[in-house]
TrEMBL record:
Keyword Metal-binding included in the entry's annotation: no
This protein's name: Histone deacetylase
Domain Histone deacetylase: 19-283
CDD domains, alphabetized: HDAC_classIV (cd09993)
Organism: Dyadobacter fanqingshengii
BP GO terms, sorted: epigenetic regulation of gene expression
Family per similarity comment: Belongs to the histone deacetylase family.
GO molecular function terms noted in the UniProt entry: histone deacetylase activity; hydrolase activity
A Pfam family it matches: Hist_deacetyl
Length: 301
């Protein structure tokens, strides 16, 4: 199989009404094991990331306030979580899961983070339940340690990767692509290198047609030697806040398109799971599990 970062600290204080989608972090590994998609030996639990890697993309003062539990009330309201030492540790573990997964993907072709996709965290701010931008940290780490010369971040969560765009606005070696809901959060968008804003109720046919038109040319243009894929499943029609009309099968086809083009060009991929807020937890788990199933078929070891 392939490496999968698993954070054992998945239970921590969250606002009323947000406990339910967090359960996927505990249940998704169990589903992957039950379906035979993964083995116990595929999972690894990361330590907190080295703060020097965080400082490479986040303002040091902001990162230190977060790590030390000293964010202001206004900053915490923007993030949406209650500030605790456990929350800081979990976020730093998630970031390292993506860093370590990216390094492992150089050998295995692909690696996953059960959590991650914290793409709303910008250089000097957190918001939307995101505090440290895991894929931004890992992308810059690969560049700084000469593990990659050009990185492409493909963000297909229904929400724009505004924090990632904010961090890499002046970084020519990291290309940010976000395809997201035009009228969805964040309501003040940042400028990615390529933004594709979708109308409400965009269906499978429209979504997949656009992606098929964009991806081959984008890979040819950017010529990345590493891809980070943010694979949120909040594009589903069943999602409570997504406002899209895609099916589980359409979401699976999306994953196939991304991973097939990476495999075709021999580009390693690190995949973070991103959002998913369908009323039935089973729907979220099945959609996420499909991403791993697709990967196991495209990247056989």
């Amino acid at each position: 199989m392939f490496p999968i970062a698993f954070d054992p600290i998945y239970k921590y204080p969250v606002p009323e009404g947000h406990r339910f989608p967090m359960d996927k972090y505990e249940l998704l590994p169990l589903q992957l094991l039950r379906e035979g998609i993964a083995k116990h030996t595929d999972f690894f639990s990361p330590e907190p990331v080295d703060m020097q890697a965080v400082y490479a993309v986040h303002d040091r003062a902001y990162a230190d306030r977060f790590a030390q539990g000293k964010l202001t009330q206004q900053e915490m309201r923007r993030i949406g979580f209650t500030q605790t030492p456990l929350l800081a540790e979990r976020e730093l573990r998630i970031a390292n899961g993506t860093v370590q997964g990216a390094l492992k993907a150089l050998d295995t072709g692909i690696a996953f983070n059960i959590a991650g996709g914290t793409h709303h965290a910008g250089r000097d701010f957190g918001e939307g339940f995101c505090m440290i931008n895991d894929q931004a940290v890992a992308a810059q780490y690969l560049i700084d340690h000469k593990k990659a010369k050009k990185v492409l971040i493909i963000d297909l969560d229904v929400h724009q990767g505004n924090g990632t765009a904010h961090i890499f606005a002046d970084q020519p070696r990291i290309f940010t692509f976000s395809m997201h809901g035009k009228n969805n959060y964040p309501f003040r968008k940042e400028k990615s290198d390529l933004d594709v804003a979708l109308d409400d109720r965009t269906d499978d046919n429209t979504y997949l047609r656009l992606l098929k038109e964009i991806l081959p040319n984008l890979v040819e243009q950017v010529r990345p030697d590493f891809i980070f894929y943010q694979a949120g499943v909040d594009i589903l029609e069943t999602d409570k806040i997504g406002r899209m009309s895609c099916t589980v099968q359409g979401c699976r086809h999306r994953d196939e398109m991304v991973l097939q083009i990476a495999a075709k060009h021999n580009i390693p991929v690190q995949c973070s799971m991103g959002g998913g807020y369908s009323p039935q937890l089973r729907t979220i788990l099945n959609a996420h599990a499909n991403t791993y199933q697709v990967a196991s078929q495209i990247f056989p070891l």
